Amino acid sequence: MSYLFQLQITTSIFAIVSLVVLVLAVVTVWQMVRIVDAYDKQALTVFGEYRKLLEPGINFVPPFVSRTYTFDMRTQTMDVPRQEAITRDNSPVTADAVVYLRVMDAKKAFLEVEDYKTAVSNLAQTTLRAVIGDMELDDTLNKRQEINARIRKELDEPTDEWGIRVESVEVREVNPSQEVQQAMEQQTGAERRRRATILEAQGERRSAVEKAEGDKQSNIIRAQGEKQSQILEAQGDAISTVLRAKSAESMGERAIIERGMETLEEIGKGESTTFVLPQELTSLVGRYGKHLTGSEVATDGQQLDSLEFDAETRELIGLDDIKEILGEIDRSAEMDIEELEQQAKAVKNGIQNSEGVHHAGDGA
Prior knowledge:
The protein has helices at 2-32, 106-111, 116-133, 137-142, 144-161, 178-268, 279-293, 311-317, 319-332, 337-363, and strands at residues 33-36, 40-46, 49-54, 57-60, 66-72, 76-86, 92-103, 164-176, 298-299, 302-303.
């Protein structure tokens, strides 16, 4: 009985020891294996001593005496809290920024600085205040890129010693105080009113210039129109004179024919049977008959030619002057405006002279 009891006790102790060994083995394996993500690196210390950096993947370390510290190797974003600063021209402003940084050397980041994020944040705050304090208010509002570049340059040297690289710095907002904003709004309003006044004055001046230019062009066009009108009027007078001259020539022939017919009628009343007719009269009668009937008047099968006026008659009715006038009209069509104006006056004077000749001929 006692033997069985001792056996049971021994079995229980063995089971417990086996269970403890199994648990200890599992914990040991758990402590020995380190799985590092692809974007991380881990600093390994054994008994507090730095040993190495664990690369991404499965790593084995001494169990129970090892510790690891994880570093994210990706670009990280860090907000710089809003800072109050005074510009060079004594204007209070508030500004905040964003810093983009990346761990380049995890060993330095582990050994050279306690907390690289806190260190970079504090350094960025002081640098932001210093840069804004070294600039005037207008520059802080307009030269964001310059502020970003100066802050980044100031952060580069100390962060390199920590194994950190500042990739970019972006100032998000720079806000002046309320009093300064009100003064700026008043200044902006005054500047806009000044520009509006200038633009209005320039518009009025340009309108006056355009109006004067338009009046000038209108006067030029009106003057050219008057010149053209005078030329056309002179040409019309010349053409009218030609037509009157041709009409006078026709009426002169008709009057001669009618006078000749009356003479023949008186001769016919006489007792004589022999008559002598001038050649000019027979030619005029033949031409006049042609115009009246549309047929040719012939004697013995031969057509009668019309009699032209002699030199004295043509001079009296101004036929030679008419040809000269027509020639002047043709030549005036090829001249420019100024020459046309001068020729029009000359033609008009010639017309008046020719009309005087006509009147003198009628009186004769």
